[in-house]
Amino acid sequence: MVLTIDIDGLLEEVGEFGKYQKLYIFFLGLSLLFTASSTMSFVFTTGDMNYRCLINGCDSASETEVEYWPIWLNRTVPFDYDDHRLAKCLQYVRHNPDAINKTNKHIFQCEDSDFNKSLSVQCDEFVFESGGETTIVSAFNIFCKNNKWKLTIVGSLNNIGQFFSLPISGFLSDKYGRKNIIIIGSVLAATCGILRGLSINYTMFLILEFFDAFFSGGVYSATFIMGIGLVGTKQRVFASTVLSAYYPIGEALVGILFWYVQDWRKFLIFLNLPGLCFALAYTIIPESVRWMITAGKTNEAIEELKYIAKYNGKKLSEESLKKLEMFKSTNEKEIEIEEMTKRRTTSCSSQQAFKRAMTSKRIILRVINCSFCWMINTLIYYGLSMSSGSIVGNRYGNYILCSLVEIPALFLVIKIMNNCGRRESQCATLLVCSSLCISIAFVPKHAVILNVLLYLIGKFSITISFVILYMYTAEMFPTEIRHSLLGICSMFGRLGSMVAPQTPLLVTYFGELSPLLLFSGSALLSGLLALLFPETLNKKMPDTVLEAEQIGNSTS
């Protein structure tokens, strides 16, 4: 006879969403708040700056601060019709450059007659706007369009770091626990972030950008899994929504901080210093009870369940306590959690569970489809976030607004998922996003309000889709390898976010409509493929591979 235990039933006994879970989710949310700094800080550290050519014979080298917008500027610099502004890197050729008075810098030669306006050359000295923001553009001399790839590659490298991190952190999390990944990853990411603010060259900055993302890559998914794993079935959607709301708040705080400091070095140091405090979390955040039971750490799980029951004003039943006590004297490798008695396995190790999952056609196809859905969601979500500064006016305000619009979307998702189910909700939100992206592409630019409205609704819909996907992925795969498979799906999802920072270059080669057309077409395809997922609404969270295979069966 195989001993079984109902983890969801235990959580109902000790309180499925009591004071303990609420406090627990608050502390976990702080780690999600911090992950936004690792994920989105490059939007501001790599932002382009306002600069123009230094015009010899017009700009006075003896002055401590050269005027950025002098009255003679349009005589010396051509107009850039692509950017709809005076060129940043070109200047007109002088008729007689040797005639510049090099002994008396106060004698200016900036008349129309001094320049040949039919010829222009690229300059190598620049004047920056006084009081403007400073980014790596000025620190590492990354000027002009031909060097723009050096700015966009930072965002892609950030996502490459997460790409390599997610499967590794997933396996480590399943083997050593969620708590270790969250705390160690957060502290190492914060250290890399601070050192990045002290970078002495572009190469050092890129290396630290990669490792910052690498160490923080698994924190979000580990935190998410811990959060929803400690609440009952009926409270999963609400718990995941509350946890997800911390991330856009973190995104908005990133924008607010840079708006205030306006300096990339100070920004990175101030942003990452609080992350070092996660080293103290070992004494505050407990390990996941669900993970401890599936990993065979029964003694620790019993103690934690007793503490949860006491904190929530509940009591663990004698029957459940006796069943848990029996685990102490049982070979943990022979225990199956809620396994169907018709089918028996000999081991619950994560390695064997993973091998079994990879031999299941149903699970493999589910992982492939889920990975594609992740890729499309990240492409559109980050693509819209990174392009938010181009909507209207102040780029900081635009970014903050585009971040905060996620919060009402997160709470609306509770009603949508509970009323419509996971599968239909996933499909519908992606199709809505597809239609909005294609609509924006053909709305006239002068219709500013309509453009902004459609843009924000598009971000609103892809946010809902992303939250559903996180919850959906966790519900489709078993506890024993949940983080591993979530890590694989999320890893492939990073392919989409790697492409997202390159959309400005996409515009250069294929036109302004190309990113929106890409977003629309990919969202349409992914939305239709989402109909192939099994429905998990009001279904027990699978703890084993066999239970995961049974999801969607008419008899399950």
UniProtKB/TrEMBL annotation:
CDD domains: MFS_SLC22. The chain crosses the membrane at residues 23-44, 181-207, 213-231, 243-261, 267-285, 363-384, 396-414, 426-443, 449-472, 484-501, 513-533. Its main location: membrane. It is found in: Membrane. Gene3D superfamilies: MFS general substrate transporter like domains. The keyword Secreted does not apply. It comes from the Eukaryota. PROSITE patterns: MFS (PS50850), SUGAR_TRANSPORT_1 (PS00216). InterPro entries: MFS_dom, MFS_sugar_transport-like, MFS_trans_sf, Sugar_transporter_CS. The keyword Membrane applies. It is a multi-pass membrane protein. GO terms for cellular component: membrane. Signal peptide: none annotated. Residues 106-538 form the Major facilitator superfamily (MFS) profile domain. Keywords: Membrane, Transmembrane, Transmembrane helix. GO terms for molecular function: transmembrane transporter activity. It holds the Pfam family Sugar_tr. This is Organic cation transporter protein-like.
